Amino acid sequence: MEKLNYKVLKKSGYDGYILEKAPEKVLQFGEGNFLRAFVNYWFDMSNEKAGWNGKCVLVQPISGGLAGLINEQEGLYTLYLRGMENGEKVDRKRVISSVSRCLNPYEKEDFDAMMEVAVSEELEYVVSNTTEAGIVYDPACQLADIPCSSFPGKLTQVLYKRWQAGKGGLVILSCELIDNNGKELLKCVNQYIDQWGLEDGFRAYVNEACTFCSTLVDRIVPGRIRDAGEVARLEESNGYHDELIDVGEVFGVWNIEGPEWLGDKLPFKKAGVNCVVVPDVTPYKKRKVRILNGAHTGFVLGAYLGGFDIVRDCMHDDTVRGFMNKMLYEEVIPTLPLDKKDLEDFAAAVQDRFNNPFVNHELMSISLNSTSKWRARNMPSFLEYVDKEGGLPKCLAMSFAAYIAFFSNDIQALTEKGLVCKRAKGNEYICSDDRWVLEFYYAHREDGVEELVHAVMTNEEMWGQDLTKVPGFEEVTVENLRKIRTEGAVAAYASCL
Asked: How far apart are the first and last CA of the chain?
């Protein structure tokens, strides 16, 4: 079967939207599954729905990458968006044509090509997702490197070349999963300006003519289809061979922190896609952490003890799903600083996302590092609810007891891999967390309920404070842990409804 390119696609009879030629308006650092299922999809939709008429030039952030494959397929690849939407199963296919080519700047010819793009009149945006470790200042980088090893170093090279050519400023959209990603990237670029002794005019260009935006991205991207049989069936149906098939969930939102004019400049509003420019992404980050991530940490530990193994099955159980929804709608949402309807719509989408029939998301994979997760995701909602309502939130309080139960359930051993416990279903499971957390629970394995709860709640290394100071919380946690151990976690969840 022939490999996907424009000629092969035409022969296949594909009748979806395709744009073969357009100016290169985006320089994108990162060519992996996430950006191709997220950013390049957004720009592809903008070409179709908003007449944006633009292409993205991708750049490998490291020497090994997908440039060869992407160029063989002339930038084309098949994207499947799969999941639940408004309670309905969705499986959408789209051939993405917003990518023109991919450069490997570790080869001199491609480095020069990157610099040609840098001084282009058409270039408007730089987009990046170079992993959480990508936005880092490495003093070993030098202006003459071909290229700098760090992404901020490469970006400084690109912007300096553009400034020297007298071209206008760019909008930089950072998608790395760190707080204030755009601000941190700008900070690194300024460090290179200092280190390399570059002109004051260039510093003004970077800090005034360019717009560095912190952004929040939200789409689960499993990436490749791992079932060879399914890939073969899809390619037979498509009429071409695709080395770059990508898969993402249907849900997607991109919040961009920037000035008001940027909302009109970007094509996304006109295209009607779920991307908004806001003065501050912090409330949206809080929404994601407290609702999406907080839901996971809030129900999975008890659900696992109750016999469930994957997230989707939890959404098919009235008790576990009801527990999660009560926690979100009645205890978490009232503490958040955004429009209530917006928060409720986001929470409703969470239930659809967790019910994705195409993703087997294992509860045990979510359980990793649950101590720091409960502290970051659930404890702020818990404490703010107590402060606002003057009482304890039932479900969040129960989720804390379920956390203790998960780490103390019939402890068998402490090994190099983690703390070995056993659940009612009979199988052993391994708790993975910071070593000191596991050693703490192993040391307290013989404690009675009251003694264990007190030891956990007064451990300020875990929580940054003494949780027994919250009125009534210790007594309720003792009662909840007893209920989980005697009646089972699902019955304990039901008692909150």
From this structure: 56
**Tens digits of per-residue pLDDT, 333-348?**
999 989 999 999 999 9
Q: Tally the residues of the chain.
A: 497
Domains located in the chain, CATH noted: 6-280 (3.40.50.720), 283-494 (1.10.1040.10)
User: Cα(382)–Cα(374) distance, rounded to whole angstroms?
Assistant: 10
Token pair belonging to 136: 């880092």
Sign (positive/negative) of CA torsion 134, 255, 351, 349?
negative
Q: Distance between CA 16 and CA 391 in Å, rounded?
A: 55
Token duo for residue 5: 């390119």
Cα angle 354, 372, 248; round to 5 = 30
The strand pairing partners of 257, in sequence order, are 278
Q: What b/e sequence results for 122-143 when a residue is b if at least 16 CB atoms lie within 10 Å of its CB, and e otherwise? A: ebbbbbbbbbeebbebeeebee
CB 379 within 8 A of CB 403: no
Helix (H, G, I), strand (E, B) or coil at 249: strand
Structure tokens at 20: 């073969």
Give start and end residues of each alpha helix (H) in 197-271.
200-204, 228-238, 260-265, 268-271
Decide: 421 and 305 in contact? Cβ < 8 Å: no
d(CA 172, CA 129): 11
| pTM (two decimals) | 0.87
Backbone angles phi, psi at 353, to 5 degrees: -65, -40
CA–CA dist 381, 374 (Å, integer): 10
Q: What is the pLDDT of residues 370-426, one digit of tens each?
A: 999 999 999 999 999 999 999 999 999 999 999 999 999 999 999 999 999 999 999
